[in-house]
Design brief:
Layout lengths: L9 H6 L5 H12 L5 H7 L3 H4 L1 E4 L2 E4 L7 H13 L2 H9 L24 H18 L13 E5 L6 H9 L6 H5 L1 E5 L5 H7 L7 E6 L6 H15 L5 H8 E5 L2 H7 L6 E3 L16 H28 L6 H15 L4 E6 L7 H13 L17 E4 L2 H5 L3 H6 L4 E8 L8 H23 L21 E6 L4 H22 L10 H16 L8 H16 L1
Parallel strand pairs: 3-4, 3-5, 5-6, 6-7, 8-9, 8-10, 10-11
Antiparallel strand pairs: 1-2, 2-11
Bound molecules: 6-O-phosphono-beta-D-fructofuranose.
Length: 546
Amino acid sequence: MSETRAVDHSEDLLSLPSALPAWQAVQQQALRLADTRIADLWAADPERAGRWLTRAGPVLMDLGKQRLDAEALSDLLDLAEATDVRGVLRRQFGGEPVNLTEGRAAWHTALRATQPLPEVQASLQRMGEIVAQIHHGQWRGSTGYPIRDVVNIGVGGSDLGPRMVCDALTHAACPEGRTLGIHFVSSIDGAQLAKLLRRLRPETTLFLISSKSFTTSDTLANARTALDWLARAVPSTEEAMRHHVIGISATPAKMAEFGIPPENQLLFWDWVGGRFSLWSAIGFPIALLLGMDGFRELLAGAAFMDQHALEAPLIDNLPVLLGLIGVWNSTFLGLRGHAVLPYDGRLASFPAFLTQLEMESNGKSVTRAGVPVNYATCPVLWGEIGPNAQHAFYQLLHQGTQAVSADFIAPVRRYQHAAEGLQAQHRLNLANCLAQSQVLAFGDGCLPAPDPSPHRRYPGNQPSTTLLLDELTPHALGALVALYEHKVAVMAAVWDINPFDQWGVELGKKMAGEAERLLCGGDPSARADGSTLALVAHIRALQENA
Ligand code: F6P
């Protein structure tokens, strides 16, 4: 029998934020409120309304439907002090190497600073020049036609951010942006690309190959397919690269290796994390759509929220409050799912963007020092345009067995100069938003006489935050996205985790290489488990027969 030695983890445990008296105080609050319902909180404090509304610039946040009272919030704010949330934000905003495992900064705030670094200034300048050339038909395809369609090839942060903003702000496009087709392609199987290429003309198409690392196999595979397609109309690869390809990356050497000439390269830096990169040259499709003035408006909205995050007292600080509520729900109330519910079809891509931002950042289980945590961190996020989700998964939120939290997001002003029909649609949309958060919070307590049938009961007590934007403008969207970026940082600070690395995705990439070798012909050195080998055998047999 092998000898086992008891390992003393007590020191490790003491290093965790859960050992802090402030953490234990919040834990006590969660126990005290365990059986208290949102409806009880309102009955106990009818003045609650005003206290839970906080506004910063174009964003109003209502926490009135969360499951906590003023006393619990006060202890959460003490926990923010005890975990030095403000200091963590200051170090991040100051460009310190807060991403400890990769030894680099997470300095996306520098991309929207009012006094930008010289390299940021230069990148914006270069983006502006190319945007103008494309807008004015001076950037031409190899046969002399102006560019009509731009295809962004990227994945993760090199896709989700610019895609989400372009979807959200089509209505704010500049006149030249309105005439361009701006498309996004990410899937490794080439399905999205193939579908798109069927209706584009190589002579008038420009590809943006967007990849921070320029090693991501999904992006490079799509890029190669795009080059093959271009070759039909532009036989010289050099010409194709010069007229039809722009590379956007933090690794110029890799872009050069791929054949992209230096004048067609837009750069950003390793201190910009992929999921925080839409403010950099990765936002080039946004600049094409909105024009540089619109892009700068987006940056200014984010800069506004940066300053608010740094300077507003904790109790009035939107990112701090949103982050603390996230920790409260996930860690202290044990809610393991969080739904993102925009009541605006233009924000269709916002839930997908947030899933990467939050889950890739905070899906961690060790502290910054590498100690395993003994508390729950990031919940599972998912989402959909709210009214569509009402007809899909809200049933589970209303009557399922799962306790979840939600964010409702909606613009207040819309269609002001449009036909009455559209104004009525917006009213209906807002009414649904308000109705659903009420039913989630109060259940059939909303009704004077609830139906006694168990099938028709609504237990309620599902907490939610409502975020109202004055209007969906570039400035307001910039502020909203920065709000969530800092929410993520606040949560990470309280949990003492590093939100800026993503080691969890690396092993899968390595194993994809092994699996590819197996699929190519059973390389005996490739590693796989029995289940995978059986699947490979099945695939190979079917493909060989075909
Ligand atoms: O695999 C995860 C990831 O590294 C993300 O963090 C990143 O946004 C995405 O892949 C794309 O990476 P790149 O921009 O280097 O192609």
